[in-house]
Amino acid sequence: MINLFQPAVGDEELSAVADVFRDKWLGHGPRTKAFEAAFAEHLGVEPDRVVFLASGTAGLFLIVESLGLAEGDEVVMPSMSFLAAANAVLASGARPVFCDVDPRTMNPRWEDVEAALTPRTRAVLLLHYGGQPGHVAEIAERCRERGLTLIEDSACSIASTVDGRAVGTFGDLAMWSLDAAKILTTGDGGLLYVRDAEQAARMRRLAYHGLTQATGFGYAKVSHRWWELEVPEIGRRVIGNDLTAAIGTVQLRRLPEFVARRREIVKRYDHELADVAGLRLPPPLPDHHTSSHYFYWVQMDAAIRDGVAADLLAADIYTTFRYAPLHKVPTYGSDRVLPATDRAAGETLCLPLHHGLSDDDVRTVARRLREAVADRGRAAGAL
């Protein structure tokens, strides 16, 4: 099976884990701090603004909770997002309000966001589809003008930039997912960026029960009764640990090679699929934008998309569509009409893209896709 996603872990990561075992400190500790500092350097921000968490979803929930949202408040977000973002908003008592997107890039434009704003809007939660930065710079500027908090769900964009500036640092808060399907993985994990220093310190406390001290062991050096608790507000335990941080530190060092290989695969797909009738490839990146290349998506007539996916699966090539439109999910209670999102959801297919794909794999996917589109297109034309 040629997989959609596949982690690249090996001897370096295994050696880093072995070092943690030898040191016998598996929990939150020095390697966690070192990983946070290394990622902060990657972003170009202060180390105390980055928090390593148990998952990206935990980061989204922490972010939303930190805003103090209440019933009646609204958060605008693209319908084509991962459900964790909508779940976090809904769990706070607020309501996710879904906006439309550009049907080719699947990223919202400012006019899409603006059309969903109401006097009850407290924040905008932006996804960078497939790693493309989209209109993040303009949306950040507009949100600042209107006094709206901008949250960046940067799960797809761990190495994306605009004019050399890291995606995830344009808004007020951001999170990255490090699960097993992501470009940089710790198995499960997430990273949180908070622009404001005081808010970052608060988020760090909330990630560990609301305690002011990370560990009793460390607190013993500054207090003669280190076992006593200081809990200014209630939190939960969603911190990362040294075991997974050790893996993440190695993965972060390898990130440039991962992204370079993904970029090469994208170029090969572009070349192999350029002349396939009835197939639209991802639009080119604007000048001064870089992508992490998390997704490679193609678009075709909605009448054949599902059949093409079935033909590829029968040939042991796993494809999918991400992300299913959330405004269609009854749980979220949306009555929004989003024609561009609906169109893109019916026409788009994500192809295998991971840094372990061989050139032969790419050629195989392209050949099978070419055949499936032609066969299904002929069949649809004959009906």
Write up what this structure looks like.
The structure is a single chain. With 383 residues, this protein is an alpha/beta fold. It folds into two domains: 11-251, Type I PLP-dependent aspartate aminotransferase-like (Major domain) (Aspartate Aminotransferase, domain 2, 3-Layer(aba) Sandwich), CATH 3.40.640.10; 255-382, Aspartate Aminotransferase, domain 1. Helices cover 41% and strands 13% of the residues. The protein contains twelve helices and twelve strands. It has a seven-stranded mixed beta sheet with strand order 1-9-8-5-4-2-3, sandwiched between helices. A three-stranded antiparallel beta sheet has the order 7-6-10, with no helix packed on it. Strands 11-12 form a two-stranded antiparallel ribbon. Strand 2, helix 4 (83-91) and strand 3 form a beta-alpha-beta unit. Helix 1 packs antiparallel against helix 9, helix 3 (56-66) runs parallel beside helix 4 and helix 9 crosses helix 12. The longest helix is centred in the last third of the chain and has 32 residues, at 242-273. Its EC number is 2.6.1.-.
